Amino acid sequence: MEYTEKVRKRLEHWMEHNDKHVEEYKKVAEELRGAGHIDAAEHILKLAEYTAKMNEELKKALSTL
User: Fold this and answer.
1) How far is 54 from 62, CA to CA, in rounded Å?
2) Which of 7, 34, 45, 46 is the most buried (most CB within 10 A)?
3) What is the extent of the structural domain holding 7?
4) Rounded to an integer, what distance in angstroms lies between the CA atom of residue 63 and that of residue 32?
5) Measured between alpha carbons, how far is 61 from 23 in angstroms, rounded to an integer?
6) Prediction pTM value
7) Confidence at residue 17, expressed as pLDDT on a 0 to 100 scale
8) Is the dihedral of CA 8, 14, 20, 22 positive or negative?
9) 3-state SS of the chain?
10) Per-residue pLDDT tens digits for 12-30
């Protein structure tokens, strides 16, 4: 497998991995909110947003290969 293809696979893997994290962060934030930890939930939701933005950049990188 050539180097570029290896990088593509790695970027795709990272995006899938990040998507799983985003879903887990949202679940934890919902649970925290339900337990009355509103501020903590908001911070975790921010983390989910940042992770989604990371995936946007990974997608851009992938599109240039």
Assistant:
1) 12
2) 45
3) 3-64
4) 37
5) 23
6) 0.87
7) 98
8) negative
9) CCHHHHHHHHHHHHHHHHHHHHHHHHHHHHHHHHCCCHHHHHHHHHHHHHHHHHHHHHHHHHHHC
10) 999 999 999 999 999 999 9
Total domains in the chain come to 1
Q: How many CB atoms lie within 10 A of CB 15?
A: 17
Distances (CA, A) of 26 to 48, 51, 59, 64: 7, 11, 21, 30
**Do the Cβ atoms of 62 and 11 come closer than 8 Å?**
yes
Q: Which residue has the tokens 């934890």?
A: 28
Cα–Cα dist 40/45, whole Å: 9
The burial of 13, by beta-carbon neighbours within 10 Å (0-12 exposed, 13-18 middle, 19 or more buried), is given as exposed
**Structural tokens at position 53:** 């933005």
